[in-house]
Amino acid sequence: MAELSVIVHGPNVQDHLTELLDSLAAHPLPDAEVIVAAVGDWARETAEHHTPDVQVLALPDGTGDAAARAAGAARASGRWLHFVHAKDGLPAGAPRTVAERVAELPGEVDVLLLDHVRSTWHTSGMPSPDGSLLARAGRADVALDDCAPLLRLTPLLGTRVLRADFWRAHEPRLTTDDEPYAALAALLLADRVACLPHVAYEDRRLRPASLPPVTPEQRYGLVERYESLIDLARDRRAAHTVLYDVMVRDCLRTFTRGGMPEEVAREFFRRASLAALRRRPEDYRRPAGLEGVRRSLLEEGAYTKYRAFQAVNRTRRTARSAVRTRRRQVGAKLRDHQYRRALGRPVNPNLAVFSAYWNRGVACNPAAIAAKLAELAPQIHAVWVVSEENAALLPPGTDHVVPGSRRYWEVLATAKYLVNNVNFPNAVVKRPDAIHVQTHHGTPLKRMGIDQMAYPAAAQGLDFQALLERIDKWDFSVSSNSHTTRMWERAYPSHYVSLDHGYPRNDVYYTAGAADIRAIRDRLGIAPGRRAVLYAPTHRDYEAGWTPRLDLAALADRLGEDTVLLVRGHYFYGGAASPLTNLRRTGRIIDVSSYDPVEELCLAADALVTDYSSIMFDYANLDRPLVIHADDWETYRTTRGVYFDLMAEAPGPVARTQEELTEILTTDAWHDEGAAKARAVFRRRFCEYDDGRAAERVVRRVFLGQDEKELPPVLPIEERTPAPTPQEATA
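-> structure tokens emitted (731 positions)
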């Protein structure tokens, strides 16, 4: 029996079925089957071109979606069913990710919920609004009553993977051509559901002009759909309340944007009004503000008043928009004038502008360079670009400017040196006598720069032409090893000079002493003698938010009282509520997601557990144990793209499951001879130029203009002495 049956159903609309089947054929699954319930000759002929990879079930023209799904399900042998409409798509690696996830679910789970992207006839790969909901629900299975907000997910059957026995038990209710009804009913009928906060489906919206016109009865059917669903949720208070809210919102949106003829609009409003009164839960309170007014008018059935209310709002919005546009234009014109005037002044040879991580503060390679600059060339004044919300966190006495301010444009226009670990805004002009230094902020495992073009999940929202224009402003690019130098030349092709001097942020791994390490561990509350394991996973382009991929409480219990877990979420999720809030227990799990600098965390840790984060390359400088937790390597490699096979060239033991990770950390495998050999090979390759004097080399070369031959030579790796281990520091 297959684990997963992918049931492709429907006609070959606008030849999208060909693309879908091609993507499935490109990534065959060992434990899954593909059944095409092909409606019509074109769909059948298209599917037959892909045999024997797919089973083709030919259905006559005119067969509805519900009947096609039922026919495909009847043929399926998998324990789980994934219904995929022929017009839609499956991102690369998605079926494998789904198959791996359902294989680990307990038997009481009926539905697995997926994230998706949206494409239209003129756009592709737009993120869905569902990611944050799925991320908040986490990876544990839940009863719908405990997570009723999941009913707000986009009602797509393709984002629900159904247990086959569950489908068969409820087939009469789920076999309907009203797909949104089936998608919501599946949740309401399920005992337990689980979430996969990965993009695993592509909802393709066809151009409305290419589709049959929507009939009045189809409009009215929206109201009937929700009333039927609320009947299913009658005895479930939380679900009833959420569904009612969704119904009213959807009805008002359809009425407002539907473009219906007058008589159809009146009748739709009347029916929606009756449903809003009939189905309103007890003690339900309307939202405040304009939304509350809209709902009040709907419940009154006040069609004429509602139309008048719409007209007033349109007038108000138009006026406000005109005022905002004018203010923006005036502000932009003033800023542009100020910047252009500043560009006419001479470049200040003793002014350097620094920024890191999109203006987060004093951090990373720029911070290490600025510190060494103050020591070797104190006549050069450093100014940091820092966002307004982070300005209060700056070290005392740090001169800084806030983006958009008058002085911000003045220093950017007149500074001799501009140093960043990302990029300055597109509007920044590269003056001929100014020097731009790109320090980067990691060694590349994942594809970067223009190499992301082939990976839609990574390339969302990227303007590659603008990227190339920013690259052309670089004078220097900092590198920590020859692998990085080659990859930067490929990902960022331009005329800059590569500074093969090491990453300045890694100097501290050779200059920190025992007293420094003891002080850091004291600040973190790590008692002497306890092992500290730093867990630092990376960002995934196919996830909307951060859901820890480990059961951290269970891992802490297995590791015992003598181990402390330092857990650091990726900085991309810095504005989100931490999923670790309820896991801080007896000092054995410490959320260090907001702790800066990260280098101190590395110094405090006896071992690092990560997945694909560039922190592994930095931590390797310490020559301490490294463990890779790679439960979704195939998905990551396929969706993001990588420059080398981490599974074959890992810096230490590799765990593919939590159980394997626990086994490694509770035995000697994390620091045995095999782990040390793997780390030595990795360290020699990726810590090539890091020896504790990288910042000095950069400052002397860029700011003091010294020739490369005058710089401190890079020490051979066997002659370097990393900072003492925590065990040595606390002995």
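Residues 303-343 form the longest helix (41 residues).
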